[in-house]
Design a protein that fits this description.
Elements: E1 4-15, E2 18-29, E3 33-37, H1 44-52, E4 56-64, E5 67-68, H2 74-80, E6 82-85, H3 97-102, H4 112-118, H5 120-124, H6 135-147, E7 153-157, H7 165-180, E8 185-189, H8 193-199, E9 202-207, E10 210-216, H9 217-220, H10 224-230
Parallel strand pairs: 3-8, 3-9, 6-7, 7-8
Antiparallel strand pairs: 1-2, 1-4, 4-5, 9-10
Length: 241
C-alpha cells in the first residue's frame, strides 16, 4: 500500500503474561479511514492501547511512516503524530473548555478557529469549565483537543457511545466532514456498526484478539450475514469493547 502511515506487522501483544492480540496485521494510508468492528471483549480497545504503546508486544512490530516505533514511549508516539481519543475522554474538569483545547496544542491546520468551525457548539461554551459540559459536549471537546495536537492519524474509541441521538447526529456529521473534507486519517471503533461503515472507506472485524474479516466499508454494510455472525443482530446496537 502506497504512502502508509501506520503498519502493524503480525503483532502479538497483551498485558503482563496475558496475550490479548495475536497476529494483527494492518496498514493505514495517509488520509485513510478504517472501521474496527467486533463484539464485546474481542480486543478492539487493546488494539488502540497497543498502537499507542501501553501494552507489551511479544512478537511483531509497529511502524510509523516507515520507522519502527515498537519500543517507543507513548508520549513520543503522540509527538510523532498519533492522536487518540479514549472512551474515558479525560477532560480537565477545572479548566475552561478553551483552556482544555490549548493546554497541549501544537501548530498546524487545527487551531481554535478550525475546531470551533467543526464543532460550533464548543465555541458557544468556550468559557465553561470542563465539569459544566454535557456528555456530548465533553466528547466533542475530547475530539477537538486531540485535533489540536494536529495528528496525522486519529484513533477514536467509541466516540458516540451513550450519547443522545441528536448529539450522535451532530458528532457523526463533524466526523464525516473531518474524513471527507479535511483528509484526516482515522481509525474508528464504534458500536454503531452501520454508522461506522457509513463514515469509513475500509473495515476490519475482530474476534478473539485477531482480525477475521476485511472488506471495503461499502461492501460490508450490505453484507448482513457477516455482520450478524461477527457483530451480532442489530449491529447498530453493539456493546463496549
Amino acid at each position: 500500500m502506497a504512502d502508509v502511515l501506520l503498519a502493524l506487522d503480525h503483532v502479538r501483544a497483551g498485558y503482563g503474561d496475558a496475550v490479548v492480540l495475536d497476529g494483527i496485521w494492518l496498514e493505514i494510508p495517509s488520509h485513510g479511514s478504517l472501521a474496527v468492528l467486533g463484539r464485546n471483549g474481542v480486543g478492539k480497545s487493546t488494539l488502540f492501547l497497543t498502537i499507542m504503546g501501553y501494552t507489551r508486544i511479544v512478537r511483531g512490530r509497529i511502524q510509523w511512516r516507515g520507522a519502527d516505533i515498537t519500543g517507543l514511549a507513548p508520549h513520543r508516539r503522540a509527538r510523532a503524530g498519533l492522536g487518540w481519543v479514549a472512551q474515558e475522554r479525560e477532560i480537565f474538569p477545572s479548566l475552561t473548555l478553551e483552556e482544555n483545547l490549548t493546554v497541549a496544542s501544537r501548530p498546524g491546520r487545527w487551531d481554535l478557529a478550525a475546531v470551533y468551525g467543526l464543532f460550533p457548539r464548543l465555541a458557544e461554551r468556550r468559557a465553561h469549565k470542563g465539569h459544566q459540559l454535557s456528555g456530548g459536549e465533553q466528547q466533542m471537546l475530547a475530539i477537538a483537543r486531540a485535533l489540536m495536537i494536529n495528528p496525522a492519524l486519529l484513533l477514536l474509541d467509541e466516540p458516540l457511545e451513550g450519547l443522545a441521538p441528536i448529539i450522535v447526529e451532530e458528532l457523526a456529521s463533524a466526523l464525516k466532514r473531518m474524513l471527507t473534507q479535511e483528509g484526516t486519517a482515522v481509525v474508528l471503533i464504534e458500536q454503531h456498526a452501520e454508522l461506522a461503515l457509513s463514515l469509513t472507506t475500509d473495515a476490519v472485524i475482530m474476534e478473539r484478539g485477531t482480525i477475521v474479516h476485511r472488506a471495503r466499508s461499502a461492501d460490508l454494510i450490505r453484507d448482513a450475514a457477516v455482520l450478524e455472525r461477527f457483530v451480532g443482530l442489530g449491529a447498530g446496537n453493539g456493546s463496549r469493547s
